[in-house]
């Protein structure tokens, strides 16, 4: 009987050791810090399109977060991290070519063969889960705004 008890305790000790050592760290992230794919908070901007920054960040009807998907779509979210399906008139896509980020808003039709409604394009840098973007607006893809704007995104959790 003592032998069975000793074997049982030994097995229990082995099972407990395996159980504790096999658990992975839940805080690990699979996010590629060099990729724009992910969930981002609009940290700052100087574009009058977004109105007043303080009002913007507290208004649930305003876009505060952007999600860049691996299928090149951009999805808007409000301050409560709720998806805003009707924020734009159509789908929104992005492309990256070198250090140029282009966001095509309100796409109607089959992307990329569609009529351009609003296009935002400019140089960006991505470092330490932060994007700095300097851009201009165009309503047709040919005529660009005289003024340049800037925006900063910071990686966030959805």
Secondary structure: elements and pairs:
Elements: H1 2-22, E1 38-45, H2 53-58, E2 65-68, E3 74-77, E4 91-97, E5 100-110, E6 113-115, E7 118-127, E8 130-138, E9 149-155
Antiparallel strand pairs: 1-2, 1-9, 2-3, 4-5, 5-6, 5-7, 7-8, 8-9
Describe this structure in words.
The chain has 158 residues and is α+β, with helices and mostly antiparallel strands. It has helices at 2-22, 53-58, and strands at residues 38-45, 65-68, 74-77, 91-97, 100-110, 113-115, 118-127, 130-138, 149-155. Strands 1, 2, 3, 4, 5, 6, 7, 8 and 9 form a nine-stranded antiparallel beta sheet that branches. Strand 5 (100-110) and strand 6 form a beta hairpin. It is globular, with a radius of gyration of 24 Å. The relative contact order is 0.16.
Poorly predicted regions: 17-22, 24-28
Silhouette: globular
Amino-to-carboxy terminus distance:
56 Å
What is the helix content?
Answer: 10-25%
Helix and strand element order: HEHEEEEEEEE
**Nearest-integer average pLDDT:** 76
Q: Major sheet, described briefly? A: 9 strands, antiparallel
* Global Rg: 24 Å
Give the total of beta strands: 9
The helix count comes to 2
β-strand percent reads 35-45%
* Protein structure class: alpha+beta
